[in-house]
UniProtKB/TrEMBL annotation, chain A:
One GO CC annotation: plasma membrane
PANTHER family documented for this protein: MEMBRANE COMPONENT OF ABC TRANSPORTER YHHJ-RELATED, MULTIDRUG ABC TRANSPORTER PERMEASE YBHS-RELATED
Protein name from the UniProt record: ABC transporter permease
Annotated source species: Acanthopleuribacter pedis
Keyword annotations: Cell membrane, Membrane, Transmembrane, Transmembrane helix
Length: 225, 519
């Protein structure tokens, strides 16, 4: 547990020390704002004339599939680059490394999501907003982000540098987004949350998928020893 | 080393399989949480009660192609979830079947014989937009009757439309329409709005489909609307406070009504007109979403409609009633009550203004031509002496309002508190600014309008309490351009705020703790 927290703390510290994190956090928060208030399309609340965040939650998975790989590519990429991965393997067990990296990146992801929370507050000022779908959407986004993160971290172990980690993660997430089988498609699953409907099968799917990819991550680390 | 790796692999592969198994097992656990305020994703009590009352087996057949396009999958999934709720609520009485007609030749032929065709749907394939034909339909079968939805993409309000269809399949009881209002007295001592008087034509026509009940609103008498499915109401300004309360409570229970309200009190026999006094009922109208202006709409583009009384003194023909024409956009075509009505003459009407209360949707369903003008006090009903138009404009004469209202009238002390509704179910109101639509049947179109309005209202009332998307879409409040600009700028500032705050906090923390920034 202590090792997990230490790895997570290091991950957060590295994240917060990097200007890159602030840049992508601002882009991640500003892009939905643009979609919601500036873009001349039906996702714009001034065009739809409804106090609804459906437009925001339609584009959020797309932003997450770019934001999360950008966030996660550093987790192992930086270790490979600095040559500290072997050192890390000697100081912590497989699960503490996997869970620590996941926890640290997940907290940064939560900060990124929290940065967008001004948008529903602004929409609520414009009329009577139904907060149920908003909370559902954010819950879905957290679970969706967790899956993305687990996928990206698993990909990161196998990739020698950050760029390849980013590209491979993007491809994997893209595949999960367009899978023709609805039961396995993460975007289809996410849309229920965005509509304010939380289904236990969807919760099980996201949590199970995250756990599966974390296990793959652990296997990959075990094989690197 | 190799043995150790193999053991790790095996152990974790088992773990992986167990996790995948657990995740798969959750797919059969039907727990769900509907977070929307109106419970949009949960089958309403109305639908539950409806399927619980089924005496025979209702078969719901989802007729879909095996691989629908990606953009339809979420829609199909939500629909299937809804249908599963019907199935659960109905116990063994609702049989849900998913069939692929393309794989069942007999079924496909049977459907085609019944005139059911594949739906045409746009699909993006290889970066090209193309139209594909596929099965995306639903069939409800109950005994020998069936209802079909040929294209599920057109199912905008799934629960509402499905329950309404089920009701049509199972309904066999009479539907009662109420005609509610005071018997207005005319200058010649006679009364209008009586069963044997000038309501006779309307009652005769409505009775072909409905049970009709006239409820005269008399001073000092309670308003009893029990057993009515929908009402036409007039003379609301003459209701007593208790009667207002009783009528409003009936509306809040989700019953539909058509309100006939005029801004000008008229005695057509003596050609006398005067503005109605502003009373508490006008504030209630504001609360409901409209205001009745104190003026008469005259429209010179209309056909000349004779308006004469058989009894002396005889009124001269009045040529200026607005005649709303479907072709000219005067009758909202999206309104079910206007289906196949070409024109509607609205005698002695006033302009209606929308007040846009929060959470209420308002649509204009009837309006004059652009050549209409207003007659203001002092009203001149004699066409020979009319001053003529001063300014042409188009005026709203009919409105449709929908939403969940809060109670406006306070509960009278002598009425029981336990039945009091502070907030209502979804209510649909149609408002027409003429009190003469039921009594001055000057053209066949008026009778068709009365019947179709009753039809539209009762189908509505049968599905009271079902949350609908038109209610879920909450409008923005009115904003000026500068307010919009400010919101846009604030949205960008909000995006910057949290990262900036965290960065600053992190910098301060590092300085306080003297942490090496390169660590």
């Amino acid at each position: 547990m202590i090792a997990t927290l230490a790895v997570a703390q290091k991950e957060i510290r590295h994240g917060l020390n990097a200007l890159f994190f602030y840049l992508i956090a601002v882009v991640f928060a500003a892009a939905p704002a643009f979609s919601l208030f500036w873009n001349p399309a039906p996702t714009n609340v001034f065009i739809s004339n409804h106090t609804s965040l459906v437009g925001f939650f339609q584009v959020l998975p797309l932003f997450l599939t770019v934001f999360v790989p950008a966030l996660a590519m550093r987790a192992y990429g930086e270790e490979h680059h600095a040559g500290s991965f072997e050192l890390l393997l000697t100081q912590a067990g497989d699960w503490p490394i996997v869970l620590g990296k996941f926890l640290g990146s997940f907290i940064i992801l939560l900060v990124g999501l929290a940065a967008t929370f001004g948008l529903p507050l602004l929409v609520a000022q414009l009329g009577d907003l139904d907060w149920g779908p908003v909370f559902g959407g954010y819950l879905g986004a957290v679970l969706f982000g967790a899956v993305c993160l687990a996928v990206c971290l698993s990909a990161g172990v196998f990739c020698p540098n950050q760029t390849s980690s980013f590209v491979v993660s993007l491809c994997l997430l893209g595949t999960l987004m367009v899978l023709p089988v609805p039961a396995l498609n993460i975007q289809t699953r996410f849309q229920n949350f965005a509509e304010g409907l939380v289904l236990f099968p969807d919760l099980g799917f996201f949590i199970g998928l995250t756990a599966c990819f974390l296990t793959i991550n652990r296997i990959a680390i075990g094989l690197r020893r | 080393m190799i043995i150790r790796h193999r053991s790790i692999m095996l152990r974790n592969l088992f773990g992986l399989l167990a996790l995948a198994g657990l995740a798969a097992a959750t797919q059969w656990i039907p727990l769900r949480w509907d977070l929307t305020e109106e419970g949009r994703h949960t089958l309403s009590d109305t639908s539950r009660k409806m399927v619980a009352r089924l005496e025979d087996v209702l078969t719901i057949e989802v007729l879909v192609s095996e691989a629908p396009p990606a953009h339809l999958r979420p829609h199909l999934q939500r629909l299937t979830t809804l249908l599963q709720q019907y199935s659960q609520a109905g116990g063994g009485k609702v049989d849900l079947v998913v069939r692929h007609p393309a794989n069942e030749q007999d079924l496909e032929q049977e459907l085609e014989k019944r005139g059911l065709k594949r739906a045409r749907v746009n699909q993006v394939r290889d970066d090209r937009l193309e139209m594909v034909e596929l099965w995306y339909a639903l069939r409800l079968r109950y005994g020998e009757h069936e209802e079909v939805f040929a294209d599920l993409t057109q199912l905008r309000e799934p629960e509402y439309q499905l329950t309404a269809a089920m009701l049509r399949l199972t309904w066999d009881g009479p539907i009662t329409i109420g005609l509610v209002g005071p018997p207005l007295s005319y200058g010649n001592g006679g009364y209008a709005y009586t069963e044997d008087g000038n309501l006779k034509t309307v009652i005769q026509s409505l009775s072909e489909t409905y049970a009709v009940k006239v409820i005269p609103v008399m001073p000092g008498e309670p308003l009893v609307l029990d057993g009515l499915d929908a009402v036409f109401v007039w003379g609301l300004d003459r209701f007593e406070p208790v009667q207002h309360y009783q009528f409003e409570q009936w509306l809040l229970a989700g019953h539909p009504a058509t309100l006939l309200v005029g801004g000008v009190a008229l005695d057509p026999v003596y050609a006398v007109a005067e503005s109605r006094a502003v009373t508490d009922v006008d504030s209630w109208f504001d609360h409901l979403g409209f205001r009745v202006e104190r003026a008469l709409v005259a429209d010179q583009s209309s056909a000349r409609v004779r308006y004469t009384e058989s009894k002396p003194p005889v009124l001269k023909a009045y040529p200026l009633f607005p005649e709303l024409k479907a072709a000219g956009g005067g009758l909202g075509q999206e309104e079910r009550a206007h289906h196949q009505i070409n024109s509607l003459v609205v005698p002695w009407c006033s302009p209606l203004t929308q007040t846009h209360p929060a959470g209420v949707t308002t649509n204009i369903i009837g309006q004059s031509s652009e050549q209409a003008w207003l007659q203001k006090e002092t009203y001149q009903l004699d066409p020979a002496k009319l001053p003529g138009p001063t300014q042409f404009d188009q005026y709203a004469i009919g409105l449709k309002l929908g939403g969940r209202y809060n109670a406006y009238f306070p509960r009278p002390e002598h009425l029981p508190a336990e039945n009091h509704l502070a907030r209502g179910e979804h209510t649909t109101l149609r408002v027409w600014s003429s009190e003469f639509l039921l009594t001055s049947i000057r053209k066949a179109g008026t009778l068709v309008w009365v019947n179709q309005t009753a039809d539209a209202m009762t189908r509505q009332s049968l599905t009271v309490g079902i949350p609908r998307r038109d209610n879920a879409a909450r409008p923005l409040k009115a904003l000026t351009e500068s307010e919009r600009k400010r919101t846009r700028l604030l949205s960008l500032l909000a995006a910057l705020l949290l990262p900036a705050l965290i960065g600053t906090a992190h910098l301060c923390y590092r300085r306080l703790r003297s942490v090496d920034p390169y660590l």
